[in-house]
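EI: anyone free to look at a 198-residue chain?
SC: sure, send it
EI:
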Amino acid sequence: MQKNSKHSEKAKKKISKALSGINHPNFGKCLSEKTKDKISESHKGKICRKLKSGQWSEKYDCCQKCGITSRPHYCKGYCLRCYEIKTYHERRNHYPYRYWASGVLRLHRRRGFTINISVDDLERIAKETIYCPICKCKLCWTNPKSFPSSPTLDRINNENFLNEENSWIICYHCNCSKQDRTIKEFIEYCKIVAKYEQ
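SC: here you go
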């Protein structure tokens, strides 16, 4: 056995994995400063994959999104992670209702709710819901971070299951105001607020 090898294969894989995201704007944040300091410039030179000519790819010098060269070229001038993010947002913008419906049902299933509605049914309801039924603001489907007009799934009677009769789509702002109240309780709450303002 050769014990004099500078790094084992397992250590090289860890270093390579860390280097792939060390300068990445989204994934480099997860690395601690101590880990970044441990990775020396000599390791970067060994792990960085380039063409024989020294270029990152035939047409591009670095990734068109994050600008790193330590991660190999994947497709159309992007590294693998940036290309996956790019294609994800393109698919999400092309099928916004489908992505929203599948993500919302997945989230409620993880929280322990009984799901009695399919993705197709929820997608159909989402396509029919253009405005929030409470405040009448237009829901924004293409940008999920467009608070407070982003769409959210709400339980009408606040029971521990989701079906087509017990679910509706309202804006984020109204859902935060309603919280875990039923519709009757929320109406009474709004009346109290209106009386207080008068």
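EI: The chain is about 45% helix and 10% strand.
SC: 👍
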